[in-house]
Amino acid sequence: MHWYVDVLKKYATFSGRAGRPEFWMFTLISFVISIVLAVIDSALGTAPVIGLVYSLAVLLPGLAVGVRRLHDIDRSGWWLLLALIPILGSIVLLVFFALPGTPGENSYGPKPLEAAAY
Q: What is the structure's pLDDT at 90?
């Protein structure tokens, strides 16, 4: 759960690097919360209202952690725009997000786990 909270603490921080655990745990927890909110929306009869508010609330942190994840593999955050290309862009981004980070320091800063030691 601390991965999710750490991403929210860096709400709009697009600089630096995010390791695979940080990105994937945020994605997983956010997905689970979205499902729970969809069930609550359905039970209350409010359709997509609560889920939409949550999605808007985590949009910026989600983009920021995606950019930081791309920085971890030494790619520019602009690669995130591949998501605009139907199907193929999402597949390429999925592969990028699954790749291991650059060992040691790269042009975007120190390795995420090493950053905590400073």
A: 95
